[in-house]
Amino acid sequence: MKAWLRSSVVMVAGLVACVTVFAQSKPVKLDKLRIFFIDVEGGQSTLFVTPAGESLLVDTGWPENNGRDADRIVAAAKKAGLSKIDYVLITHYHADHAGGIPQLVARIPVGTFLDHGPNTEFDKGITEKDYALYQAELAKGKSKVIHETPGNVLPIKGMTATVISSDGKLIDKPLPGAGEANSYCDGAAVPAADQTENSRSLGIEINFGKLKLLDLGDLTRDKERELVCPVNKLGHIDVYIVSHHGWEQSSSKVFVDALHARAAIMDNGAKKGGSTPVLQTIKSAPGLETLWQIHFSDEGGPANNTAAEFIANPQGTDAGLGLELVASKDGSFDVTNARTHVTKHYAAK
């Protein structure tokens, strides 16, 4: 082979090798679940974005306030790279959960709503009003609606979300890996039955690989007990989105202790939620590593709130800041405080 030809072959081979190495060194898309805990001032709004690119928003915050809550939700969606929200799950029809629907759909398209079925709280007031406004939005035909029942798996791709509670009904058998007898039930009082929309909350457990996360909306103590006594139908979880913003009508000790959550995230406001007994129950729960709060609880005071680095909006401030959780399928996850930009890592078990 002539010298000039050998040189050309070597040069081409070298270029091919370089291109191959470069292609192999390209960053691989990370298989992560992102969760945004949005500050809606003591209401709820939690945005899940799966590695498949689909999105689930749990609740829409309050009505009015010049669209404050809807604007915060849209800001979180844009941060996640979303131009629409695929699914919006309405846990129940109280104003701090469903009130923001009209303002939200005016700002960003919604594919499908998920709910527990018709409203049954006829208070001749705000709950009926907000439910009527929700129905008016559905009547426009821009979004579909699915009424969920316990045991259903939500249609979202990229994570498994199983319906635990809906319209006052609960799963009738333990989830996979659950079903152990719950010793915490011994001697625990049986709560009175709740008659409000709270007990009808549409609640879900999310599985992302080995990670388990529980969000039951405002499900009340009577329903909680049915889920964990005499056997724990839920098993142990990693992340507990504290029911009912940390109000004492939910998050009973017999329930919280049974979960053995590693992290608890409370979507309270400064003056809404964050009841002292609940703060104490969660902070002392077996297995808990960290309680995170959207706001410092005025009721709880310095003695009962979590440490300042785990609070998005500390005492005396209200910047509308939230928290973000990023999870891996091996069960590890990170939580970042938007105020401090500090991240805490939770290793896979």
Commentary on this structure:
With 349 residues, this protein is an alpha/beta fold. It has a single domain, classed as Metallo-beta-lactamase, Chain A (4-Layer Sandwich). Helix content is 24%, strand content 24%. It is built from nine helices and 19 strands. The strands form three sheets. A nine-stranded mixed sheet has the order 6-5-4-3-2-1-17-18-19, with helices on one face. Strand 10 and strand 11 form a beta hairpin. The N and C termini lie far apart (61 Å). The N terminus is likely disordered.
CATH superfamily: Ribonuclease Z/Hydroxyacylglutathione hydrolase-like
CATH topology: Metallo-beta-lactamase, Chain A
Helical amount? 10-25%
Largest sheet composition: 9 strands, mixed
Residue runs with pLDDT of under 50 for 5 or more positions: 1-29
| Count of strand segments | 19
Rg over C-alpha atoms, rounded to the nearest angstrom: 23 Å
Examine the secondary-structure arrangement and name the CATH architecture.
4-Layer Sandwich
Instruction: Report strand %.
Output: 15-25%
Structural class: alpha/beta
CATH class term? Alpha Beta
Q: Work out the helix count.
A: 9
The mean pLDDT is 92
In spatial order, strands of the major sheet run 6-5-4-3-2-1-17-18-19
Summarize the helix and strand pattern as letters.
HEEEHEHHEHEEEEEEHEEHEHEHEEEE
User: What coarse outline follows from CA principal-axis ratios?
Assistant: globular
Number of domains: 1
Distance between the termini: 61 Å
Mind sketching the topology for me?
Blueprint: H1 3-24, E1 32-37, E2 46-49, E3 55-58, H2 68-79, E4 85-89, H3 95-98, H4 101-105, E5 110-115, H5 126-139, E6 144-147, E7 160-166, E8 169-170, E9 180-181, E10 203-208, E11 211-215, H6 221-228, E12 231-232, E13 239-241, H7 253-259, E14 263-266, H8 276-283, E15 290-295, H9 301-304, E16 311-313, E17 323-328, E18 333-337, E19 343-346
